[in-house]
Amino acid sequence: MFLAFFRRAVSSARVTSGLGVLLAVCLTGVAPAPALARVTTQTLDNGLTVVLIEEHKAPVISFQVWYRVGSIDEVSNYTGLSHLLEHLMFKSTGKLDTGEYARTVAARGGNENAMTSNDYTAYYMTWAPQYLPLSAQLEADRMVNLRIQDEEFSTERDVVLEERRMRIDDSPIRATVEQMYSTAFMAHPYGRPIIGWVSDLQHLKAEDARAHYRRFYAPNNAVVVVAGDFQPDQAMAEIRRNFGSLPRQPGLESRRYRTEEPPQLGERRLTLHREAQLPFVFLGYHAPNWQSPDAYALVVLSQLLFEGRRSRMYQRLVFQDRIAVDEGGAYDPLSADPELFYFYAMVAPGETPEKVEAAIYEEVARIQQTPPDAREMERARNQVEAGFILGQDSVFYQAMQYATAEVVGAGTDYVTRFTKRVGKVTAADVARVARTYLQPQNRTVATLIPLAAETPK
Amino acid sequence: MNRVARPVPRHVFRHVFRQSVTRRSVLRTPWRAVRALPVLAVLATVVTLSGWWGGGALAADLKVQRETLPNGLTLQVVQRQALPIVSVQLAVLAGTRNDPEGAAGTAALTAALLNEGTATRSSTEIAEAVEFVGASLGAGAQADYATISFSGLQRNLDMGMDLLADISLRPAFRQDDVERLRKETIAGIISDEDQPGSVAAKAFDRELFGSHPYAQPAAGTVDSVEPLGPEALAAFHKRHYVPDGAVISFVGDVSFKDARKLVLRHFGKWSGRQPPAASPPVAVAPAKVRVVTIDRPVTQANVIMGHLGIRRTDADFYPLQVMNYILGGGTLTSRLGDSVREKQGLAYSVYSSFDSLRDPGSFTVNFQTKNASANQAIASTLVEIRRIREQPVAEQELADAKNYLTGSFPLRLDTNGKTAGLLTFSAMYGLGENYFTDYPQAIQAVTAADVQRVARQYLHPDAMLWVVVANQKEAAIAAP
């Protein structure tokens, strides 16, 4: 689904401005849907990008600040620093005590949280429109005034270690995914876990977090996105008042150097033997990101392979052959650097990962050799179009889509034009990109093999 | 606890693999029955319409039009025209509590089969019709009821209703489809064993609820699902998928008149009365602490501490919501969050919740911590439970809690899907037509004395069930 394409991030201090009116694309022969949301993008003198998405359907705003910093900016021995800093952003700023940020928002009926990805770190609150000025105050304050205390740093690092145990270490599938990415990306930082390796987390110091904060938290490395029920002029005035005087970080390049992943010249395979109930296969091919014109055809390809019960993977592995009990995959063009086009399957009891893997390759070969028929293409287009409109129902989600496009450098126009571009992809394009990118020498395959075949009751 | 059974794990991992890492656990619904979605799930039962931030724009927006048809089906409509989309949800009294004795998983498997073929449509035909227009159609069973939901563009509503009615009223339960889904369900139950949180939750329910159906896992067990065949599912469907007590809710770009017309066309001739209500034995509360340990090769102890809770209709529901928010419902802003996570760094996720159902549900505190810290986190939890029983809460703490509970209500209604779910919920638990306006008053009326009274009455630190899934050697749980 379109919804899911919008994730990670990075650089580009492009100066876009002007007004884009976002129109729902006219669906198969029916009158066009009404104009949905009004989207404007501006850049302040200090480099802060501001995206406003005006949408008056409910008295709610989502106020978000996205920083172009994530695990992609981390170096060896210091993995997990961006995410740990995200946790620390809820500590004292001098104006606010530790914990006061969360209490301030909750006591006004708001929900807040934050997240870190490969490409970005994002902070968001969703609450009543009357708190837009307070949102701007709180976020501007912690953009420059955070005070990281040694003791709080240590406690929060323990929390993150618990988070890692929960998410990765005690999850056979997540552990498999982590190791697969490390194998697929030998050089590029995408090979490193966002949450960090255990020993790195244990060795990080408060001063590392302070340095990371000083370097990356600045208006010229951030995007403020507001979606929902507000007046753009008033919102802009509040944002200027609170963020306008914050100093630009002069040394920070918007498009920073990252190790390029050398071309993969042959299949890589890895196996995990650990406690688990069912075998699991996770495989991926290096694929280009939004910068490539092939991205749209790859989106359609992923739609045909993975979306819904009519998808080829479901039909083949689960419905017809019944050798997997769960399957899927994804391709997301909105990454700062090229990422993976991946497949996964949980192997059905009594079946083998080899059989599942072979079936996946047969499906890949089939779409490489025979372009999809007209109806299948139309289904994929309709899904993308409908998904886009349905996605407007949540202001949080809307803000997230535009913010992701902006921080990875694709720009908000990418979102506006996405449906139309996808609509132009032909069946021949789909087969061609499948042939180009889904090649065995470009593939990394991870298999989880359960250690003990103990039968649970 | 969220007993939503989704026995067919489909596309579960999508985009979860490289998902961002967040500061607090995000309440996404994982791929299978999870126990307790921390705050949001609790608050879905805790909403209010006053304390509206802006003074009522959304309140005015939430004009619910209702009508009960002669066959017992209640129609609820909230018209919203901002976007050309509609969500529809039908709910029937066919929850997992209705699973026949010894056949846990029947309700969940029945719901899962609805999408897999009707008298005139195959599984593939249904999927093709829905997916061709980018819509979604699905069904699932919770503890007290089952839901069938459609979401799509307004112009596909007629088609969506046709399908929703067909799968709800005329499912085929073909042998081959039943076998396929049964296999998937069993595989799902087996792979749940890889999630320590799920292992703990199942054990907790089993131990707490005894012979009440809430003791059984929503998807069933391998042994209980194995014998389920087409006849059993068809019989369950015939008995429990009846209009009597059922509710259908529309939210989005549709008028009451049009929704009513659609409902009359598709459900007007639907008939049937609810079977006589079974009154399952209410579980008996133990008199002292009971510890259940399950040994697994894991790095963290997954701990659930709790005991019986209340019915959703209990008069003390509201003061308990306020009390629980202060204790552990507000996650990071709560006392448990502050002690266990913020001050001691023992856990990433810690929260408490009252799972209030048709029959008394549970009160639980739930956290994960490295094996070696399990005893420390358990002790800290007990300190906080005792403190809220023994000392009145501060006025500011009370005001913050009430303001959050009443003020965050619009966030429960800010999408069509969420609103439809809440309409279903309020109707299925008989919370009354004034629920949306009564709620804030009930919350705002709660005093510090009320909080202490319900804490004393409903929290029993000396008679709790502790379930600990851990590497037991490292955790070395010290029972009191």
Structure description:
The complex is a heterodimer of chains A (457) and B (480). By secondary structure, chain A is α+β, with helices and mostly antiparallel strands. Helix content of chain A is 41%, strand content 19%. Chain A contains 16 helices and 12 strands. In chain A, strand 2 and strand 3 form a beta hairpin. In chain A, helix 2 packs across helix 8 and helix 14 packs across helix 15. The radius of gyration of chain A is 23 Å and the shape is globular. With 480 residues, chain B is of the alpha+beta class. Chain B has 18 helices and 12 strands. Chain B starts with 20 loop residues before the first strand and ends in a 5-residue tail after the last helix. At the A-B interface, helix 2, helix 3, strand 5, strand 6 and helix 5 of A face strand 1, helix 2, helix 4, strand 6 and helix 6 of B.
Large-scale geometry of chain B = globular
* Largest sheet data of chain B: 6 strands, mixed
CATH class categorisation of the domain at 61-197 and 205-267 in chain B: Alpha Beta
Major sheet attributes of chain A: 7 strands, mixed
Structural class from helices and strands of chain A?
Answer: alpha+beta
The overall strand count of chain B is: 12
What's the pLDDT, averaged over the residues of chain B?
87
Strand order of the largest sheet of chain A: 1-2-3-7-4-6-5
CATH architecture group name of the largest domain in chain A = 2-Layer Sandwich
The quaternary organization reads as heterodimer
Distance between the termini of chain A: 37 Å
Which radius of gyration of chain A do the C-alpha atoms yield?
23 Å
CATH superfamily of the largest domain in chain A: Metalloenzyme, LuxS/M16 peptidase-like
Tell me what the CATH architecture of the domain at 61-197 and 205-267 in chain B is: 2-Layer Sandwich
Strand elements of chain A, count: 12
Percent range for helical residues of chain B? 25-40%
CATH topology of the largest domain in chain A: Cytochrome Bc1 Complex, Chain A, domain 1
C-alpha Rg of chain B (nearest Å): 22 Å
Report strand order across the widest sheet of chain B: 2-3-7-4-6-5
CATH topology name of the domain at 61-197 and 205-267 in chain B, in short, is: Cytochrome Bc1 Complex, Chain A, domain 1
